[in-house]
Amino acid sequence: MDQAMLSVARAVEAGATTMKGVIDATGLSRLKIERALNALEKQKLLVRDGQGFRGTSPTRTAQPARQCGSCNACCDILEVAAVDKPVNQLCRHWRTGTGCTIYERRPQMCRSFVCAWLQGHLDDDWFPAKSGIIVHFSQDAVNVTVDDHCPDRWREEPYFSKLAEWSLNGIKRIGNRGYATLVVSGAGRFLLLGRTVVPEPTLFGTAFLPLTADTFRFWRAKSPEHLQRLHERIAEIEQIRQEFGSCTIPSNEDDDPQAPYRPALLRLSHHA
Q1: What is the pLDDT of residues 112-142, one digit of tens each?
Q2: Which PANTHER family does the annotation name (predicted)?
Q3: What is the distance between the alpha carbons of residues 23 and 2, in angstroms, rounded to a whole number?
């Protein structure tokens, strides 16, 4: 069961019976949810009828591998719009010694959320109450949220090497199976490309080329058209590398190349 199916199964088991309910609980797109629902139906783990969605039986894979214990990091670090809870602010419904005071009527996001440590994907160095880092998976991203009391913790070891490893795995995957590794720390937003950190990635995407096995040169796109031009130039760089054995990579992070790309790249690389 992939991560999208797992998220949808948890949401349905927690009480989500409509498409809107599952979207609110998982944050996934309608298309991804529909694919997950179809797959769950084929495996006879879910039924759709006039009353909405319902699970046929609890799935063993949907159960956490661990228990939260003393950790309430998700109630402190994560944003929960349904109860007007901002990121890195303890939920007003949390009480020391009591826990969640609205547990029986908590939002779907809270019901279905299971962090990567709780699922058993990470060792005890990543215990959120200790590390100040919450990791959770979506179908197209590894999402990392950091406590603002230790905003640079994710850059330290053993955390950074693991995040870089995930990032490289996501980059190497083919087609729509690839995923991004995204970090939210205070007001900062970061995209990881191996050990290269892209600050404040744009909504339009980031074009990149490998420099070493785990570092990259990157350009943040300012529009869909800009991203297309960057990708066209990268394709030309790769072609020149194949023909001549090398090609100098333009260094200006935010430059905006204009076709034709080949003559300028050949001159820059002294191949003209």
Answers
A1: 888 989 888 899 999 999 999 999 887 778 9
A2: UPF0153 PROTEIN YEIW
A3: 17
